[in-house]
């Protein structure tokens, strides 16, 4: 069953990693409901992305693992589960 | 020194002695610097950048070292895309260095400018664009570290022309660590204990061996484990050379055109130990009917492969060498003779229905692909590096060539790139000058990078080229015959005189069409001290069996057409 999930990603602050992350969602046909991208104020070399995704938990985990594999990604966390579902 | 000289120095620091490339406008400073290093770093001028990257792949696959490519910007860089995708899916360490327009021209649609970084994003492990000379050593150090660590893969470093000209105070520090990158997982010994428990209690255990065993140089540990436990081993396409085919516990090749017994027995095993393999769809067939009865222990260095296709009961995210060593220390010595023997009856059935017809001489004197490959295997005793292209011939080589040693099976697995074979063989030979290197290709695939015979000619690379010529794009024709009512839509191909083409490249060759000439022709080719092209005319509508039809279970593998 598809639900909304929030996935937070902390990574190096560059366009390539943002594009790679989006590509992963795209390949898995994961719907992006919202995307917040920001530079870390205390360290501009690092950035943070919070995506609200609409997908199954299983697919979210698979995408999370692929994102964690990216060289520039420091860590990821699933922030919350919302009640929004198909 | 200049940024271009820094590229040379950095390559030297990484121990690079071989580069495949093709010059152009935006990489000219690098080529100018290379001129002063041409004795230390041997550059092979290819005839197409795709040839360069496949050669680099073949070099990397056959040696375990990183393959290096130079290409210019724009079309030169985009010509690398197929090879990058191939290297990524087959986990091959390659570093591509591309020229780029000067940094003030970026984004202006300048001559030969492409956004190669973004084009390469989905087909690389990492990319970086360097716009200042001072960043070149660091970027290359990182590139080489990333390419060959963890699960290996391709990396692209794009250097603007002004960065190549700029001066810098050169200093090189090899990269040994990246804060955000953790290539070597820590072995979970709790998971090891769980795996040991399953293995010790198994009645019909089974090992599935993938390329990860070769990448980890874990053949010794694999054999130690298998021999201690008496567990039979089957291999994937890229795992074919991880185990000697003469080993008493080797039971065959898995997958769509694999051996009958190992595929059938997958759905009888009670514990499956999957080592460095990723349960690709060519191996699993229908996942809904794949090994449902078995407990799965999955060893892979890439965490994202665990549970991606097949759910693991025990996951060992680890280097295969480490994991197998730990398992071998802890498992009980055992034997499963009856279970191993149970493969024999199915093997015999496959021999009677498929192998004997495929490989033994027939009454009508037409050479079959199986015969050609079998004879090649016999004459080399499996002691050759064999590169293949993609198609029916590839499946025949995987079935009938008796690989003996690791890093001798050079084939495009995940992407299935036609045109891979010839340049890959070139690269493999340059990495292993004392080994016999043979490319087996179909008439279709051979022509996709046929221009690399020019490279072979120029550098006198003694690669042996075997073309199994049926005047068809054979694998597609087979599917059209079996699933599209024999509607051969654009699979019949008219070919040149390959021997004459080879001769134009100053490469000797011969064409055979009769079974009685096959043995002697292969012997002549193998004895040649130079490059040699042997065209073998084979049966036109031969099909590769066994076969697991698309969407079918591994248990439904067909020995012949219905």
Characterization of this structure:
The complex is a heterodimer of chains A (86) and B (562). In chain A, 29% of the residues lie in helices and 53% in strands. Chain A has helices at residues 15-27, 57-68, and strands at residues 3-12, 31-40, 43-55, 73-85. With 562 residues, chain B is of the alpha/beta class. Helix content of chain B is 39%, strand content 15%. Chain B has 23 helices and 18 strands. In chain B, strands 2-1-3-4-6-5 form a six-stranded parallel beta sheet, sandwiched between helices. A six-stranded parallel beta sheet of chain B has the order 9-8-7-10-11-12, with helices on both faces. In chain B, helix 11 packs parallel to helix 14. Chain B is globular. Chain B starts with a helix and ends in a 25-residue tail after the last strand. The chains are: A alpha+beta (86), B alpha/beta (562). Chains A and B meet through helix 1 and helix 2 of A and strand 5 of B.
Which whole number gives the mean pLDDT of chain A? 92
Number of helices of chain B: 23
Mean pLDDT of chain B: 97
Strand order of the biggest β-sheet of chain A: 2-3-1-4
What is the global morphology of chain A? globular
Query: Spans of chain A with pLDDT under 50 lasting ≥5 residues?
Result: none
How far apart lie the N and C ends of chain B?
A: 69 Å
Low-confidence stretches of chain B: none
Give the helix level of chain A as a range of percent.
25-40%
Explain briefly what this protein structure is:
The complex is a heterodimer of chains A (86) and B (562). Chain A has helices spanning 15-27, 57-68; strands at 3-12, 31-40, 43-55, 73-85.
SSE layout and pairing:
The complex is a heterodimer of chains A (86) and B (562).
Chain A: E1 3-12, H1 15-27, E2 31-40, E3 43-55, H2 57-68, E4 73-85
Antiparallel strand pairs in A: 1-3, 1-4, 2-3
Chain B: H1 3-13, E1 18-21, H2 28-35, E2 42-45, H3 49-63, E3 67-71, H4 75-78, H5 81-89, E4 94-100, H6 116-120, E5 126-130, H7 136-148, E6 154-160, H8 161-165, H9 189-201, E7 205-209, H10 211-215, H11 219-229, E8 233-235, E9 250-253, H12 260-266, E10 271-275, H13 281-284, E11 295-300, E12 314-317, H14 320-330, H15 337-359, H16 369-380, E13 385-388, H17 392-400, E14 409-410, H18 421-431, E15 437-442, H19 443-446, H20 453-459, E16 464-469, H21 474-483, H22 498-504, E17 509-512, H23 515-527, E18 532-537
Parallel strand pairs in B: 1-2, 1-3, 3-4, 4-6, 5-6, 7-8, 7-10, 8-9, 10-11, 11-12, 13-14, 13-15, 15-16, 16-18, 17-18
Helix pairs in contact in B: 1-2, 1-7, 3-5, 3-18, 9-14, 11-14, 12-15, 16-17, 16-23
């Amino acid at each position: 069953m598809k639900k909304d999930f929030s996935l937070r990603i902390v990574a190096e602050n560059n366009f390539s990693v943002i594009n790679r992350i989006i590509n992963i969602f795209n390949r898995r046909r994961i719907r992006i409901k919202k995307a917040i991208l920001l530079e870390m104020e205390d360290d501009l070399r690092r950035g943070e992305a919070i995506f609200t995704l609409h997908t199954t938990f299983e697919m979210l985990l698979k995408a999370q693992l692929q994102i964690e594999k990216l060289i520039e990604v420091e860590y990821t966390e699933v922030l919350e589960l919302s009640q929004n579902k198909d | 020194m200049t940024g271009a000289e820094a590229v040379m120095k950095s390559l030297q620091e990484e121990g690079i002695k071989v580069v495949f490339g093709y010059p152009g406008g935006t990489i000219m400073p690098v080529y100018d610097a290379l001129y002063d290093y041409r004795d230390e770093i041997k550059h092979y001028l290819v005839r197409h950048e795709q040839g360069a990257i496949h050669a680099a792949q073949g070099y990397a696959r056959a040696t375990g070292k990183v393959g290096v490519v130079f290409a210019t910007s724009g079309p030169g860089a985009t010509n690398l895309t197929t090879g990058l995708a191939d290297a990524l899916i087959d986990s091959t360490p390659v570093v591509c260095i591309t020229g780029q327009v000067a940094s003030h021209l970026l984004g202006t649609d300048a001559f030969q400018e492409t956004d190669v970084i973004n084009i390469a994003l989905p087909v690389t492990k990492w990319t970086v664009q360097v716009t200042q000379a001072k960043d070149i050593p660091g970027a290359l150090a990182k590139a080489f570290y990333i390419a060959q660590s963890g699960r290996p893969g391709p990396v692209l470093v794009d250097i603007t022309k002004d960065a190549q000209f700029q001066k810098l105070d050169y200093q090189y520090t090899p990269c040994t660590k990246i804060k955000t990158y953790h290539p070597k997982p820590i072995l979970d010994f709790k998971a090891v204990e769980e795996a040991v428990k399953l293995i010790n209690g198994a009645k019909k255990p089974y090992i599935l061996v993938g390329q990860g065993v070769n990448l980890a140089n874990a053949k010794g540990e694999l054999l130690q484990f298998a021999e201690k436990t008496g567990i039979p081993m089957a291999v994937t396409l890229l795992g074919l050379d991880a185990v000697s085919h003469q080993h008493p516990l080797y039971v065959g090749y898995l997958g769509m055109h694999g051996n009958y017994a190992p595929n059938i027995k997958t759905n009888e095993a009670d514990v499956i130990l999957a080592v460095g393999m990723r349960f690709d769809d060519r191996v699993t067939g229908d996942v809904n009917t794949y090994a449902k009865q078995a407990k799965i222990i999955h060893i892979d260095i890439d965490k994202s492969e665990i549970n991606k296709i097949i759910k693991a009961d025990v996951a060992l995210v680890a280097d295969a060498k480490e994991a197998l060593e730990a398992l071998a220390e802890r498992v009980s010595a055992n034997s499963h003779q009856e279970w191993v023997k149970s493969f024999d009856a199915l093997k015999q059935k496959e021999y009677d229905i498929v192998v004997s017809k495929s490989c033994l001489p027939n009454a009508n004197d037409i050479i079959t692909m199986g015969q050609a490959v079998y004879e090649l295997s016999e004459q080399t005793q499996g002691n050759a590096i064999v590169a293949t292209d993609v198609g029916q011939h590839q499946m025949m080589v995987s079935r009938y060539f008796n690989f003996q040693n690791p890093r001798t099976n050079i084939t495009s697995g995940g992407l299935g790139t036609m045109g891979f074979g010839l340049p890959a063989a070139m690269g493999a030979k340059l990495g292993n000058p004392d080994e016999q290197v043979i490319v087996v290709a179909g008439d279709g695939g051979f022509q996709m990078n046929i221009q690399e015979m020019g490279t072979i000619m120029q550098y006198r690379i003694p690669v042996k080229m075997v073309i199994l010529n049926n005047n068809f794009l054979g694998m597609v024709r087979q599917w059209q015959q079996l699933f599209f009512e024999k509607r051969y839509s654009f699979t019949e191909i008219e070919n040149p005189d390959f021997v004459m083409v080879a001769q134009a490249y100053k490469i000797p060759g011969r064409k055979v069409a009769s079974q009685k000439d096959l043995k002697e022709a292969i012997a002549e080719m193998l004895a040649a001290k130079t490059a040699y092209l042997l065209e073998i005319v084979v049966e036109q509508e031969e099909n590769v069996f066994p076969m697991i039809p698309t969407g079918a279970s591994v248990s439904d593998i067909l020995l012949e057409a219905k």
